[in-house]
Design a protein that fits this description.
Blueprint: H1 3-14, E1 16-19, H2 25-40, E2 45-46, E3 62-63, E4 65-68, H3 77-94, E5 100-108, E6 113-117, E7 127-134, E8 147-150, E9 155-158, E10 165-169, E11 173-176, E12 183-191
The structure holds N-oxalylglycine and nickel (II) ion.
Amino acid sequence: MEPTIKILEDIETKSYSVCDGFISLSETEVLLSKIKELETQKLFKQASIGNKTEKQTNTGIRRDNIYWLEKDDESISFFSNKINALVQHLNRTFYLGINDEEFHLAHYPPGGFYKKHKDAFKSDDARKISVILYLNKNWKKGNGGELKLYLANSEETIEPIGERLVIFESHLEHEVLESKTDRYSVTGWLKSKRLAF
Ligand code: OGA
Ligand code: NI
């Protein structure tokens, strides 16, 4: 099945979708070397919780380092273009009215995690769809750092395998289990000002 069709069907039937091979290995390498460069420049910062008005770092809730990407960052255009194509389909199919997005690079060092949470804030529910692209080339069982999604009647544990894209409705509770190794991703949110999902 064409990947976009599968993603749309999955979102409709189960509120999330896993798409393997969303980018290529060489594109993964580009993103990983960008991360390496930014880390050398000490531009990755400890992530905080809450939005701008209620921001705080709380290492008991999450332990990861992030770098916010600029919207016009040329070095990730191969990724943004694919996401924008997907957004068009999501808007047409679900009338989501997505007209904004934000992305950051994330590095969970060994021992990193993010306890159960929702990505939509109480004071700002603009985040409608969460998008995560994993960059972990040689991820193996036992490395940890799985994404656990809490669905209405079940729980899903998703391995953070390289080139894999996961998208889910931002109102869903989820967590990142403790990673035993360095875990890299691009994480973002598709946003709209619509009141109801
Ligand atoms: C987040 C998040 C999940 C993941 O950054 O809000 O839940 O698998 N990330 O990295
Ligand atoms: Ni989250």
